[in-house]
Amino acid sequence: PRLLAATARSLAHASASGCLATVSAHEKIQGLPFGSCLPISDGPFNNSTGIPFFYMTAKDPVVADLMKNPTASLMLPESEGEFCRKNIVDPEDPQCVRVTLTGQMIAVSPEEVEFAKQAMFSRHPGMRKWPRQYEWFFMKMRIEHIWLLKWYGGVSNISKEEYFKAVPRKA
After folding, report:
1. Distance CA 29, CA 169 (A)
2. Counting CB atoms within 10 angstroms of each CB, which of 42, 81, 107, 119 has the fewest?
């Protein structure tokens, strides 16, 4: 279990983006799954928290969904991971690890905004120049469940305690 937790944490820390799925609040698809691929960061390169942070705007349909129902899933594929790249394996192949984090999306508290800025802007420096009229703000996921698909044969459920205790591998 510790190795699986470390793999999940490593993937969360190495991921620059992920696919966030929400429950749609939009009239024509209300109640259906809705997804968006977004830039993420679990902290600056030298400070992994395991908690995904996001830079969001209310103009994004996903934010409207989250305002009605903050429950979401975040899938992080190993598409750029060492194994898949070295072995020229299709990122969708089960040999390439994937972790899915589920939980509640919440706005970052004023006390955490500086850390969220460091986390996001250190990984995505261009964000600093995004148009201000979009009224960007920071969110994070309060993780409730961690699911790791590693190799063939099913998904491993990782406890939050093991996940947050794990130390990600150095890049």
Report:
1. 40
2. 107
Q: What are the tokens at 101?
A: 């984090």
Residue type (1 letter), 86: K
Q: Which pTM was predicted?
A: 0.90
Cβ neighbours of residue 55 closer than 8 Å, sequence gap 6 or more: 39, 116, 120, 124, 127, 130, 136, 137, 138
- CATH entry 3.40.50.2300 includes domain 1-165: no
- Count CB atoms within 10 A of the CB of residue 128: 10
- In the chain, domain spans: 1-165
- Say which residue the tokens 């999306």 belong to: 105
pLDDT in tens, 59-93: 999 999 999 999 999 999 876 556 555 665 655 66
> And the tokens for 170?
């150095």
